[in-house]
Amino acid sequence: MLENLDALLLARIQFAFTVSFHFFFPAFSIGLASYLAVLEGLWLKTGKSVYLDLFKYWLKIFAIAFAMGVVSGIVMSYQFGTNWSVFSDKAGPVIGPLMAYEVLTAFFLEAGFLGVMLFGMNKVGKKLHFAATLMVALGTFVSAFWILSVNSWMQTPTGYFIGENGQFMPGDSWWDIVFNPSFPYRLVHTVMAAYLTTAFVVGAVGAWHLLKDRANPHARKMFSMAMWMAAIVTPLQIFAGDMHGLNTLEHQPAKVMAMEGHYQSYPEGAPLILFGIPDSEAKTVRYAIEIPKASSLILKHDLNAPMAGLDTIPDDEEPPVGTVFWSFRVMVGIGFAMLGVGLWSLWGRVRGRLYEMPWLHRAAVLMGPSGFAAVLAGWITTEVGRQPYVIYGVLRTADAASPLDAPAVAASLLAFVLVYFTVFGIGVWYILKLMGKAPHAGEYGVKRGDVGPIRTAGITPGPTQNPGGEETLPSAKPEKEPV
Amino acid sequence: MDLTVIWAFIIAFAVFAYVVMDGFDLGIGILFPTFSAGRERDRAMNSIAPVWDGNETWLVLGGGGLFAAFPLAYAVILPATYPLIIAMLLGLVFRGVAFEYRWRDPAHQRFWDIAFTGGSFVAAFAQGMTLGALLQGIEVVDRAYAGSWWDWLTPYTLLTGLGTVAGYALLGSTWLIWKLDGAEQDHARKLAIWAGGATIVLMGAVSLYNIALNEEYASHWLTAPQIYWVAPVPIVTAVVSLSLLHGILNARNSKPFWLAIALFFLGMSGLGVTIWPYVVPPGLTIWDAAAPERSQIFMLVGVAVTMPLIIAYTVWAYWVFRGKVADEGYH
Fold it and tell me: What pTM value is reported for the model?
């Protein structure tokens, strides 16, 4: 089997592998940073210790997730050059500056304030600490802004011309490059996806502990907050996704044809294929279950609107239909399952039984990783759907790779697979262990042995007198360091 | 001034900032096995835990900045040093997660300490070898790397790799002189003497090798009238080296660390003299590889606005965690 893998395919697998792994962490930490900011803000506003306890509970998890996101992210920033050098040379003048802005306005902000956020509560006081948390949260968002602008420009390139040396050159306006046509939609859709991913993780942890002890006030609080997010943001996200799809139809119609499984054109209204098995050789979807004309209704808001199919696209410009068709359905299916949980929780809330519905809690636990699956499926849809191009319609993926030989890329891919599964697998396990501990009053923060920058003298009052007490102080009920 | 020259200095500044700031993090990682498990390791780790992430970000600015300002150089250097870059990235993965994992899993703390050291060493060595591979020249044809797989592996690159490991160890040990006290400070002092001696010797060796490496490099240093401009670099380096060794033996605070940084600054200046005006010797000058003016201006605006802020809050973050580690807990 290996002899069929050429250097290009290996480089694509390596990029797909490393970027998929990487994105799990920001998908979680974008939302979690904001959640931490909300918790700390509510603590400062209300003075209720439950918010501080939850802040410290999730801060420990954030520290691990963020570290994994950082180290896997640095890999991405170099992989453009190591494996896609032709792309880097050609596109550098346009997307390089956007990525430089990401470093300058986001990465430094996150990293600069992270130390204070994790260890500095006792050193800088509550308000400055809250400011640091806000800066970290802002940094995660700004990072998403720039990198999604880059990705969107590669999907819908505008505002450039090709220079004499073959490079993409910026045109008169950077605005046209940054705010390219698919960017606003992708930004909204992706950031909401990150919020939902976090909300379902938080909801699952809350639900897990409610199943063990439905009176746990911390579990109740986090479950309730997460279910508000599920109920409110999921419908907005479905709407945003629909808008994003319409934008894609306008700018990358072949991608939508693949998502819909439309091998043929439909002059009098296209069916919505719910399920089926795409067969790209026969150019048909086998065993299709379809709703007549519904696709035209959704995409064109007209039952009889004609829809072009992949028969209008030259074969060598078609994306792989099967992958796009399925990943799209996985994403949409999870989206509606999220909506179901959100509505279920609303119903429970109306009846005043939100914390006494074990089946809802079990469903929420089951849905804990759903955001990650949906995010991954969504990215597969959009990235595979723009093939065979890396810069849509202009530069083919096959023409963008580095002049590396297959064994070199095979070796690095193998190393990435081994290291990532081991290192990040262990990290996820540590996170799950932290999540398995019930949140409680007097929660510790990020604690570092018996010495360290967070250590303060043990003279401050205990948490019973001071709900805003510090992480290492001796509490009424001494506990071991959470591990 | 020419925008391309400005950008060359900005990238050089980012690389210098990275080398110095992550240099002491990596150096502590390299020296970690010599610290006794328990309090000494915990204090060493805690002295950098709040700042390592920000320090590492300069690497992303160096790489991302190169991509943006000199895309052709980025597209040539990284494939040419492919195995080194991959090794560095994987080393940084282990190093980075060890900061968190060692506290999360006391049963396997020793394992993560080894990962911390291994990752730091591999990253430092690979970075030094990458520098060597760049200085010894990269073959470019038609805007692409045209050499073979193993061009980066030569006695010279092994030397630059070792020099970087020693230099980072020097930065790490002088940082610990600053941040620790008592027996642990004395230990750091001993390490710093060795690391300092090794760094000075290896810097000298690399400098001489550079002059022997090709005639153009030699001419930058040895022809008049340029020799009068560049001669102060080795002279000042000698003076700084001596005061560094003196400072390591005697100082109780940050002085050796600042002198180590000065040594690095002189080393980087020397490299600048050697390589100028090439970004990828022997064929690509900074002007050959530069992004178009419109890209340079757009980014320069960003740098002008954000860099003062970045430096300000970075200094603040260091200030928050100033002083000897764990002082407050033990008074």
Answer: 0.88
